[in-house]
Amino acid sequence: MTRWDDSRTQNVSDDITDDTNALPAKYFTEEEIFEMEKDKVFGQYWIYAGHANTISEPGQFFTRTIGDRQLIIVRGEDGEVKAFDNVCAHRGSKMVEDTPMTDPGEGSRIQCPYHLWTYDLDGKLRSTPKSFEEASLNPDLEDEEVQEFDCETNGLNDVHVDTIGPLIFVNLSDDPLSLAEQAGVMKDRLEALPLEEYEHATRIVSEVECNWKVFASNYSECDHCQANHQDWIEGIALDESELEVNDYHWVLHYTHEADVDDELRIHDEQEAQFHYLWPNFTVNMYGTADGYGTYIIDPIDTDRFQLIADYYFQDGELSEEEQEFVRTSRQLQEEDFELVERQWEGYKTGALAQAQLGPNEHTVHRFHQLAQEAYDS
How far apart are CA 6 and CA 353, in angstroms? Predict the structure, then answer.
């Protein structure tokens, strides 16, 4: 079977009107690209970790895996959220077990079960067992020759943390751009809303068979909505919608006919808003209930990703109306899963070297540009 010819592809163009306005197909399908993304995408930009309300007390923590690194996200004794690699400074053991945000752990210390090195909630080494303080089993050393471990230099490896309201973000790079720069106007808009007053109600995790960027591209446009989300668009005025593009953030605004009395309304009109923050996080306000949702588009490998969908309402117990809100969201997800898995089957054939985007897919174009810029950096 003839596969794509790389000589016929070019980098994503600056102008959406050019033929080369989409990422070449190889950036979706080749395994080495996914390995590169662990460093150049997920290792360089701010990545959503979880919601601060789930770790409201000092000592509460959850874990979050980004690329090949698992982090401990913990509320410190000073009330601040901190993040550390889940790796002991002694011999590199994983310390705490996988702990989802929806079921956080808690404790006054972080202790490695291998040799019981123990750390404060600020990552500083607090204590080591007696066997590290004396040389009783080593005939070549006297106890007084044993070197004391420096608590500062043997602390946990900390990771940059910042927040947008109650939304916690981490950055794995040594010298990151600021979260404010990456989020842009999204930060101001979300912080103007009382997001922290809403409680986590439910989480739905789905494994989907396609590259994460295929789903991200699908999320970022609604040209497919008329044909594929017919139930949802009944109350949406698509011809009055707006697709807003910023540097690392874009928003799909849809005017909704329903009138809901909620605290998340930004404009006089009831509006559905879908915020996308590069590279893989969304905040969703459907305009039909007093609540919001978040998505993490979490890559597993080249061919699969997890969609982690969390829903927040003023009360953690779902009302019938809120259950319907979640059902509507879930229906949209399942309709999109079918679309992106079909697209993925086509990509894998090798028949298409480089796709072309339409004039209203400028949000997708921006997503592809950011990916290209990251790969070329």
Answer: 7
